[in-house]
Amino acid sequence: MTRGTPVSAHLVWEEICCGCHRRGCADGCTGGVLDPAVADLFERIRASCSSYLGRDCPIRVSSGVRCPAHNRHVGGAAESAHLEGKALDLLCPEGLSLEIFWAVCGQEAGDGGFGKYHWGAHVDTRTDPPCRRWSAL
Ligand SMILES: [Zn+2]
Ligand SMILES: [Zn+2]
Questions:
Q1: For 44-99, how does the pLDDT look when each residue is reduced to its tens digit (9 = 90+)?
Q2: How confident is the model at residue 23, as a pLDDT?
Q3: How big is the CA angle at 135 (ends 34 and 38), to the nearest 5 degrees?
Q4: What is the CA radius of gyration of the chain?
Q5: Would the CA dihedral through 45, 51, 52, 58 be positive or negative?
Q6: Ligand 2 centroid, distance to 117 Cα (angstroms)
Q7: Beta 133-135 vs 87-91: how paired, if at all?
Q8: CB environment 43-67: b (16+ within 10 A), e (fewer)
């Protein structure tokens, strides 16, 4: 996929592909492979936040797909769902409290994973084991 390829209504590939493209931490990384379900999850979270705010609510992805070299570079867990293209780190959008953002992300993550962070939330579509929840506060 090229950088500007749309992966869902409000996401383009460059926003979620492996950060090597931006930081050059690995040679030959082509950006990784995305689980399409995670783009759907992003859209559900975005829609839910927009309805809370009563206006369009853009959400920034701080980390999406990671190749092994990049995952090590950012200190990710060895079994991170980011390696499978199943995870997104989402920054809490402007105008929304962290508590509401976490509630939305936890609800929409469903059987997938959800972690609270001071900057926002990690969500993923890995369901084995189901409903993993954690707080990194
Ligand atoms: Zn990479
Ligand atoms: Zn994450």
A1: 999 999 999 999 999 999 999 999 888 988 899 999 999 999 999 999 999 999 99
A2: 59
A3: 15
A4: 14
A5: positive
A6: 9
A7: unpaired
A8: bbbbbbbbebeeeebebebebbbbb
Who's near 64: CB < 8 A, 6+ residues apart?
15, 16, 17, 18, 34, 38, 82, 85, 87, 88, 89
0.70 cut: is pTM over it?
yes
Longest C-alpha distance within the chain, in Å? Answer: 44
Q: In terms of residues, how long is the chain?
A: 137
Give the pLDDT confidence of 6-48 residue by residue, as tens digits.
999 999 998 999 877 655 566 678 788 899 999 999 999 999 9
At 78, list the tokens.
């060895």
Q: Which ligand is nearest to the Cα of residue 125, counting in written order?
A: 2
Is the peptide bond prior to 129 cis by the omega test (within 30 degrees of 0)?
A: yes
The domains of the chain are located at: 6-135
Span 6-135: which CATH code?
Answer: 3.30.1380
**Cα 99 to averaged position of ligand 1 atoms, centre (Å):** 32
